[in-house]
Amino acid sequence: MTVDIETRWMSDYNRKEARTAFSQPGIRYSQAESLMQDDNFRDLSLVERKRVTERILAEIKGRMMEDIVLLETKLSKKNCEVFRLQFAIGEFDMVVFDPEEETCEIYEIKHSDKIVLQQCRHLLDKQKCEDTAFRYGTIIGKYVIYRGAKTSLVQVGV
């Protein structure tokens, strides 16, 4: 029902945290429903409740998408280490590290169905990529997983 997905910190190699990925996404919605039953939430105006509800649901959907992608990748890539990589500013939502091949792939995972150049800003950060390659080997792919049409960074002018 749950799987821990490791978060590694570039600034502190010994610091490792785990984020619990739910294999049953309905649990996230159930948690949100509980929050919306709170008396403080009910005291908000209709406009405020709608804004908060939309924000909560967007966050939940984004987190669910990340969890699903991380979980399925971890289960399918038995020979690789799959984790999130945190920097002082920013993160890679997923790193797939193959210690045998001394290579890695880096990913951003977005719930959006639109191409937004900002989605790949960390993937294009030269220092983040150099630091990642130093620790996890040659970067053989940089990807943004999103809900829109298949495209490439070259097509969006990067």
Structure report:
By secondary structure, the protein is α/β, with parallel strands linked by helices. The chain contains four helices and six strands; from the N terminus they run ββαααβββαβ. The chain has a six-stranded mixed beta sheet. Strand 4 and strand 5 form a beta hairpin. The N and C termini lie far apart (39 Å).
Rounded to an integer, what's the Rg over CA atoms?
A: 18 Å
Q: Given the C-alpha coordinates, what overall shape results?
A: elongated
Number of strands: 6
Low-confidence stretches: 154-158
Secondary-structure blueprint:
Elements: E1 2-9, E2 12-22, H1 26-36, H2 39-42, H3 46-76, E3 81-86, E4 91-98, E5 103-109, H4 126-136, E6 138-145
Parallel strand pairs: 1-3, 5-6
Antiparallel strand pairs: 1-2, 3-4, 4-5
Helix pairs in contact: 1-3
